[in-house]
Amino acid sequence: MFFNKKIETFKRENLEALVEDRIRYTIKYASKNSSFYRTWFRKHNLNPNEIRTHTDLLKLPIISGKTIRQNQPPLSDDFQFRSVDWNQVFTIHETSGTSGSPKAFFLTWNDWERYAEKYARAFISQGFCRGDRVVICASYGMNVGANTMTLAASKIGMTIIPEGKCVFPLRVIMNYKPTGLVGSVFKFLRLARQMSKEEMRPSESGVKRLVIGGESFAEESRSYLAEVWGCEVFNTYGSTEGTMCGECSQINGLHVPEDLVHLDVYDPSLQDFVKDGECGRIILSTLIPVGEKTGTLLLNYDTEDTTTVLSRDKCSCGRTHMRILNPQREAETFWIHGSPFNRVDVERGVFQRENMEYLTGEYEAFLKGGSLNEEIILSVNLECLKDKNYRIPVVEDNFLKGFLGRNPRLRKEYAEGRLKIAVNFLKEKELLIYRSKSRPKRVVDERKVHQSKPEHGKNK
Ligand SMILES: [Zn+2]
Question: Does the pLDDT of residue 458 top 60, yes or no?
Answer without folding.
Answer: no
